[in-house]
Amino acid sequence: MRKHLAWMATLILFLITLVSPLIPMSVVSAADSKNLIYDEANLLNEQEKSELNALANEYGAERQTDFVILTTNNTENQDVQLLTEDFYDEHALGYDKAHGNAVILTLDMYNRDIYLAGFYKAEDYLDNGRLQSIRSRITSELSSGDYKLAFEKYIKLSYKYMGYEPGVNPNNILFNGWFQLGVSVLIGGVVVGIMTYRSGGRVTVNRATYEDSSTSSVIDRQDRYIRTTVTKRKIEKNNNNGGGGGGGGGTSRGGHSHSGSRGSF
Known about the structure:
Elements: H1 2-19, E1 37-39, H2 46-63, E2 66-72, H3 80-91, E3 102-108, E4 113-119, H4 121-125, H5 128-143, H6 147-161, H7 177-199, E5 245-247, E6 250-251, E7 257-264
Parallel strand pairs: 1-2, 2-3
Antiparallel strand pairs: 3-4, 4-7, 5-7, 6-7
Helix pairs in contact: 1-7, 2-6, 5-6
């Protein structure tokens, strides 16, 4: 009984260790926070801006990267990528230093365009592919006007994706926390089941116990080949990028390289 309890305690500790990295632990005080929400298009109320800013500061501290949001009416009809690059240059954004680690979500309300850009550390950890995945997952909320929810998802997905080494697909099911938890519980259940089974003694009776090998044999065997059929079907390619657009970074006029993804909503 004590051995069973020890196994269960070990299993619980293992599950806690497995899931705990998925939960951000940092707490940022209001005095230490900085403005990361530039809502020039007035899409958010004051409470929403305050909550998003607190969330961006908290998650950004964990990744040492500023998670920035810029909304604009873009009255001069500037290209959304160039607008984002100039904003980074002019505001000297960066968590670690001026023109440092930052990821920017720019919402152009004039053209209904969105651009995501990752600078320095974010360029490595949020490459074109990861930014495109983030953009595709928030496009539906942007299209329906649920901006606060879209921005929350952007911050949390950016935080999540930066927890994986560059070159790794963060959407792989093997990295899913619930999948890992389910596998852990399954393994624990199998281990406990084996222990319970063995604790009751082994069963020594099997098929051979009642079988007379001298009178047992295969009476008849027959194989019949009918035919083989091969069917060919054209596989259609999926070109849906979540609102249109695609990946592509560049270099700002200030000389700062970045990853990127753009599209419409």
